[in-house]
Fold this protein.
Amino acid sequence: MQKVTASQLIDRAAALLSDGSVSAVLGWKQGEFDYDITPAVFADEQALRDAFVWNDFCGANFSKYLLKATKKVDGKVLVFLKPCDTYSFNQLLTEHRFDRDKVYAIGIPCEGMADIDKVKAQSGDGIVSIACGETIQVTTLYNDAPVSVELADVLEERCANCKSKKHVAYDELLGDEGDVLDSARFDEVAQLEAMTPDERFAFWQEHLSRCIRCNACRDVCPACTCEKCVFDNPASGVENKAPANEFEEKMFHIIRAFHVAGRCTDCGECSRVCPQNIPLHLLNRKFIKDMNDNYGEYQAGAEVGSRAPLVDFTLDDPEAADVLDRRG
Amino acid sequence: MQVNGEFKPLIVAFCCNWCSYAGADLAGNNRLNYPAEVKIIRVPCSCRVNPTFILRAFQRGADGVILCGCHPGDCHYTSGNYYTRRRMAMLFSMLDYLGIERERTRVEWVSAAEGAKFAATMNDFVAQVTALGENKRLEDLRCKK
Ligand code: SF4
Ligand code: SF4
Ligand code: FES
């Protein structure tokens, strides 16, 4: 259960709207299903009271939405940011992607978000409605009584391995501040590194061959904000279309991960939205881990204006061969 | 590529204009041998090489890709090869992570005066890739002759 309630957020947003401090609110509203929560822009208090949602399914990171919202809206945009979202927020500021003066950011604590696939594994299919409270109450077509699911048992991967409950950017904080956590997020990367090349090849082959090139991972990514993307260029050899063969599958994924290397905050949005459940975070984290190991610890978005490892160097960086040998 | 039943690897060597390409020239002038399977692509600086170039070389049938530039500190543009060093280290490590043989990729610093080193490096790299055999894991069958 989340520590701040939807009504707390709505009241605060309504107050800021009515005194004119902000002219729009970026928040969550319900989509097709109870667990399908989508981002929305709210322009007045009535709209907030009618549709604003905050519960265990509000995974969407709003940082990237600020790019458009701050251009469209006259006056300030109020945005609610979970701790991990604030890293993306800073990273976008580092890249001068939106005007900080046009944003009023409210940090909100987060207890982690629920992964609907894990919920379904417990409740079964045929979900009719979901109510988030102390526990998550799932009503399905096939169970007489609602099934009660603990949030802690159905956390999204990125939340189970959360790197920080501390907000690195905000104008105002609702609820309590958390800490940067000692997360186990690189463990799975290390396990893969310990496998033989043949095992790794088979592992990735199995995952990447499922990719349908819907580009959701790129579209959602707060680090992917180029107006002209290489994947939209038919001459690039990696344009938007279903991969024709194994080469194209790998090409897309290597290029995607490489383009965000050093700028990826590990917010986990890409893996969350992938309809094929491809573990994209394992590619991103591989780059983060390698950069940490070889060029010093670096967390994208921890500070505004920091220099990412791939646009920096030192005179005695290890050679490519040494980087590989070190790991054996 | 199979020539008379014997495997001959196709090697793409990206060489920066100011050092390594001149080094290759010197190797030629001094009549030092290196295998004809090495196809040199001249680039203004090692840092011109975008990771896509490496992948595309594999796609078009390369069995090994080597990137040569000026020694660290000697780049004609002062610092290009320092960026190359990080970028290629990360890319090659990622390829290895995907299970693609690490022996198929290499970075080597070769100066304009090192004709002998150029030839020796190419001989060594070709032998290494020949031992591995054909590139199967990053191939694009549509590009096969
Ligand atoms: S979201 Fe998943 S299926 Fe869609 S392009 Fe990305 S990896 Fe492929
Ligand atoms: S690559 Fe994925 S984890 Fe990294 S910033 Fe983009 S969406 Fe977030
Ligand atoms: S000019 Fe040779 S590496 Fe930059």
